[in-house]
Design goal:
Layout lengths: L6 E2 L10 H11 L13 H21 L8 E4 L2 H19 L5 E5 L4 H4 L2 H6 L3 E5 L9 H4 L7 E5 L13 H10 L3 E5 L16 E5 L10 E5 L25 H16 L1 H19 L7 E2 L13 E5 L5 H10 L2 E2 L1 E2 L12 H5 L4 H4 L2 E5 L6 H20 L2
Parallel strand pairs: 1-11, 3-4, 3-5, 5-6, 6-7
Antiparallel strand pairs: 2-8, 7-8, 9-10, 10-13, 12-13
Helix pairs in contact: 1-8, 2-8, 9-13
């Protein structure tokens, strides 16, 4: 609980800054390189560049999968990383082989990929979506029929941002590579939460603010052999792959947050998973009327610290506002908003009935949220659902 009495349970949207990240920012502000441009030739510029390159080494190590520091491209956020991955890699693959004019995206991707599809079609690509099974998992069996030697890129996220379902990235990557296609994964939700399967992927997106780093900085890591056409132009920064003066301050904080979560991943994962399992058991107990969105378990196929549920008969917006008044901050697992009655595209793709999907909630947290706060949240939600259903 914060000093204002709120319990923030929307870490999947953006997590509070961690102590290591805050300390890194403070150290930068007190250093002689504060404000120095890392592309300048003078002494402070070179020192800033050295600090920036160390953050690439740290992030490459945290990502794993054999990525090198030179593969790490800084961007303004996960949305930009995903955007330029789809545009840049697809166009790079087509420039190398003119028949590569197809792009396959999973139907459960973040909007930063789903919404790119019309623009990709405008650039001459055929875009197709591979659907998940009822549990929210995209299988190699579902992907295989869509693959041929015209596919430039396949993009499937490492873990879904609404349900937390972990995807079989290694299997999907191998299927794509068997047809000569490149493979990108959006690991924005998974990075720092679970070990990533990146040994064979060509590119991966990760963002700072999901793991306790600052908002406004992310990376797209691409192997040196990956064809890529830049989508922005200017001073030739990031080896010509993404123009613009780099944000050294935020890069240092990102790397500090990443080292903290990755070095303590196993211990924190076990702790957060246990708390999430307990919350699921309380909320989805017999008689509550609350349902999990997926049959995937936290121990076998779902992110720790993300609880995805549905409250049939009560819409998400009502639940969020009532929980907010009770001091608990959560988000909808659907795209419901004022004036909209459309369920989440993720839950729809999973085949979840509309009336259930409209009552979806996503509760997300890390080890900083205490068990007693989760218990109080569970009681508040159960009371609200009972009251609402009693009025139907």
């Amino acid at each position: 609980m914060d000093q204002n009495g709120f319990v923030y349970l929307d870490y999947a949207a953006s997590a509070p800054m961690s102590e290591p990240a805050l300390a890194a920012e403070l150290a930068y502000e007190g250093s002689d390189i504060a404000g120095a441009n890392p592309n300048s030739l003078h002494t402070l510029g070179r020192k800033a560049q050295q600090a920036l390159e160390k953050t690439r080494r740290d992030l490459a190590r945290c990502l794993g999968g054999g990525f090198r520091p030179s593969d790490v491209v800084y961007t303004s956020g996960g949305t930009e990383s995903n955007n330029i991955a789809l545009y840049g890699i697809s166009e790079g693959a087509r420039a190398r082989d003119r028949k590569r004019t197809r792009v396959i995206i999973s139907a459960i991707e973040h909007d930063s990929e789903i919404d790119v599809a019309p623009s990709l079609r405008g650039r001459g690509f055929d875009v197709e979506f591979v659907r998940p099974d009822r549990s929210g998992r995209v299988t190699a069996e579902a992907l295989e029929p869509l693959l041929d030697d015209r596919v430039a890129l396949v993009s499937v996220m490492s873990a879904n941002n609404e349900t937390g379902v972990v995807q079989p990235v290694a299997e999907l990557c191998r299927a794509a590579h068997a047809h000569g296609a490149l493979f990108h994964t959006d690991a924005v939700q998974a990075f720092g939460r679970i070990p990533l399967e990146l040994d064979e992927v060509d590119a991966v997106s990760a963002a700072a603010h999901k793991i306790g780093g600052p908002v406004g900085i992310a990376v797209l890591a691409m192997r040196g052999r990956t064809p890529f056409r830049p989508q922005g132009f200017g001073g030739g920064q990031e080896q010509g792959r993404r123009a613009g003066t780099q944000n050294v301050r935020s890069a240092l904080a990102f790397a500090a947050a990443a080292l903290d979560v990755c070095e303590n991943l196993s211990e924190r994962r076990a702790l957060v998973s246990a708390r999430a399992n307990r919350l699921y058991q309380t909320l989805c107990a017999e008689g509550t009327g609350i349902l999990p969105t997926t049959s995937a378990t936290i121990d076998e196929g779902r992110l720790p610290g993300m609880v995805s549920i549905m409250c049939p008969g009560v819409d998400s917006e009502t639940l969020i506002l009532k929980l907010d008044r009770a001091g608990f901050e959560v988000s909808a697992g659907s795209a419901c908003s004022s004036g909209s009655l459309d369920p989440s595209h993720v839950l729809s793709a999973m085949g979840i009935p509309r009336d259930q999907a409209l009552g979806a909630l996503r509760i997300s947290f890390d080890e900083r949220i205490a068990e007693d706060d989760l218990d109080r949240f569970a009681q508040a939600l159960l009371d609200i659902v009972r009251q609402q259903n009693g009025r139907l």
